[in-house]
Amino acid sequence: MPNWELRNCCVHEQVVFLATVGVYTVVILALWRTVLLTPFKLITVFLHEASHAIACVLTCGHVEGIQVHANEGGATQTRGGAYWLILPAGYLGSSFWGMVLILASTNLLTARIAAGCFAGALLIVLCVAKNWTLRGLCIGFIIFLAVVWVLQETTKVRILRYVILFIGVMNSLFSVYDIYDDLISRRVHSSDAEKFAEVCPCPCNGAAWGVIWGIISFIFLGGALYLGLVILS
């Protein structure tokens, strides 16, 4: 039975999990404005745009193209679908995938599945990519994941779980920062939240939706840590 109450917390694996997340958070914040994190920031932008695309397809729309730019921006061209679901799917979807990757890192089998699915998603997006930044990002990370997988399976360098956890933590932190930077601290009138405020009948402006989406993103992050501890208990 799952240990929902987290009795007898924390055992060795739970301590390692929390300590690793803490170390990753410190490292990410310390290196935030360096080029070392740029590829991982662009992967977060990729997951943001991919989430728009998934919402479009699930609501019977058509994805015409996806772009990720070197300045950490991106765009997804869609036709049809439920606009009011496609708009919030970017920020919330990015936070959701961060949670999924964090949880996947708690077990080698699920880490393998996550890495395989991630590589498959990159391969699919490579086919609809509209610029070379995204194409290069897809190719680069497919090669990166393949190298990590080979090291995991053929050597004593067992880092697959830690790589998946790092991408998950990075994605969760960057999505929260992105929401704050784009939607709350400065009003970007072309942002998803501003567009959502125009189509949603609720009396909320873009900044208010940014706050709501930010709270949901924190819930995803907190939920990932809690569920991770439950899985490892």
Structural write-up:
The protein has helices spanning 12-30, 38-58, 83-104, 108-128, 132-154, 160-184, 192-199, 206-232; strands at residues 62-68, 74-79. The mean pLDDT is 89. The longest helix is centred in the C-terminal third of the chain and has 27 residues, at 206-232. Strands 1-2 form a two-stranded antiparallel sheet. It has 233 residues and is mostly helical. The chain is built from eight helices and two strands.
Summarize the model shown:
With 233 residues, this protein is mainly alpha-helical. Helices cover 71% and strands 6% of the residues. It is built from 8 helices and 2 strands, in the order ααββαααααα.
Helix content: over 70%
Number of helices: 8
Computed over alpha carbons, the radius of gyration is: 18 Å
Principal-axes geometry comes out as globular
Quaternary organization = single chain
Query: Strands across the major sheet, in which order?
Result: 1-2
Which spans have pLDDT < 50 for at least 5 consecutive residues?
Answer: none
Largest sheet: 2 strands, antiparallel
- Quantity of strands, as a count: 2
Structural class by sheet pairing and helices: mainly alpha
Q: What is the H/E string?
A: HHEEHHHHHH
Q: What's the average pLDDT? A: 89
In percent terms, what proportion of residues is strand?
Answer: 5-15%
Distance between the termini: 10 Å
